[in-house]
Amino acid sequence: MSAPTGDNLRQTSHDYYNLQATAAKATYGKALAEIANSIKDDKERAKWTNETGRGAQALFDRYLDTKQSTVRWDAIEPPDAGLIKPMATLSHCSDDEAKELAKKLAVLKLNGGLGTSMGCVGPKSAIEVRSGETFLDLTVKQIQHLNKTTGGDVPLVLMNSFNTHEDTAKLLEKYNLGGVNFLTFNQSKFPRIVKDSLLPFPKSTTGDIEEWYPPGHGDIYHAIYNSGVLDTLIGQGKEFLFVSNVDNLGGTVQFDILKHMKESEAEYIMEVTDKTRADIKGGTLIKYFGQIKLLEVAQVPKQHVPEFQSIKKFKIFNTNNLWINLKAIKRVIDENLLKNIDIIANPKVVRGTSVIQLETAAGAAIEFFRKAHGINVPRNRFLPVKSTSDLFIIQSDLYATQHGSLIMNPNRPFPSVPIVKLGLKFKNVSDYQSRLGGKVNIIELDQLTISGDVTLGRDVVLKGTVIIVANDGCRIDIPNGSVLEDKVVTGNLRVLDH
Fold this sequence. Notes:
By secondary structure, the protein is α/β, with parallel strands linked by helices. It is built from twelve helices and 27 strands. The longest helix is centred in the first third of the chain and has 32 residues, at 6-37.
């Protein structure tokens, strides 16, 4: 009897995995049915089964089907020149053209996130950014100004999550000045999966909210379709949807891009921008087996992560500013093309239990749209606020606001944004605010690092590279009006009134 070959062993392993996967899918389906049975109302149970149950099952099945597959590193190529167009090469959109395009445009903000990473409660869009105005306030001002200048009726669409929809509905009540029509819908609410058993974490729909999760912003396509908002927009004569994160204050309507989209007949355009050392985790566009594709760090084999994070080979990253044809979304859903969208398994620990939540990225759908490509945009179109370090930059004198949009100070000697790293004592917004005496001048700042028990007084000026480190047991108070240029400050420094 001949010994088994490597191919035979691999086939046996593959067959065994398939048997396990088939059993896991069936067991998961039974558990979902038990959750559905916890709903007493027949109509509500049927709705949950058709939307949540089927969606969760489909995502779980695809995850098991693709779990053993990885990106083939040798098949990755840089995108062709025609797949990434510099924004500077686009033709200018005139005011008259903008007015016509505005009639066919809707703006959607991804509004499902909470402010927990910054120590806040409630929707991240409710965090105050500048002069008492929140992300949502600034967004509404942008759309009001857009409609006023174009004479259009561009609606503001919010994709909320089950975490944010109630609070967002209350926030929207205050916008009674007109000039903006709102549409809202919720992304899906799926059960987290216990890592060891591959079973849903919740046992019923009335369990702890922590047992559920929104499955990433890639759920936008099914969610807008299932909610009826897609048909509503198409019925209003809208053709184009501009999508961006609500916390990206650089994600504003750019009519040159919209004009290019119409003229090129592209169904999908992703804005990318040049990568810096601060962007090593951002997804990038690649050519994969002859097709455009978004590559995320979670999809990269571990041995190739350093290469992925290099700014030499992968020079651009996804801003998540997306331009999408509305009728194309309908076609992609109707033809079930998203059944092959890449899935990212995000590990979490909830109440001491290791769980996974299966997520998809909105940008990963680029490969399913016709004539899809990227546009390399200036960095000022990517100004996200993910931490208090980002908030520090946005709230400084580096920017002013105009009609809800951020305008960089013309006195800045170069267009790049400084790199700011604030320590753990600045992590929560409340702590951050207590450590700043007022707006900081960073017009000529290149890099700032603060660690330990540090406070900054009023009218502090920071230039070049500044490092302020208070070791354990030490405290540093930077006095009002201080000017620090290319300085390292350590030890103790306190200025007391007398």
